């Protein structure tokens, strides 16, 4: 997700989180913005992986339509 263009934005962050992030940046000799980029990229990747793939959901839906009565019995 690396890109050469950058855009400024403003937000507010919990002061403890920001303090800890600044400490990490200093201890690792990295810029704060690099850590923010990394954290946001990690969050995006995590959210993408949490979403089921379309073909998996389609197979689930087809199975549920075909075997719904059986699934209900099994659940009892």
Describe the structure.
The structure is a single chain. The protein has 76 residues and is mainly alpha-helical. The protein has one domain. 72% of the residues lie in helices and 0% in strands. The chain contains 3 helices and no strands. The longest helix has 22 residues. The protein is elongated. The mean pLDDT is 90.
What topology emerges from the helices and strands here?
Elements (H helix, E strand, L loop, with lengths): L14 H14 L3 H19 L3 H22 L1
Keywords:
76 residues, mainly alpha
Q: What is the count of distinct domains?
A: 1
Largest sheet: none
- Please work out how many helical segments DSSP would assign: 3
Uncertain regions spanning at least 5 consecutive residues: none
Distance between the termini: 47 Å
Report the count of strand segments.
0
This entry's quaternary arrangement is single chain
Bulk shape: elongated
How much of the sequence lies in strands comes to under 5%
Helix content: over 70%
Summarize the structure.
The chain has helices at about 15-30, 30-50, 55-75.
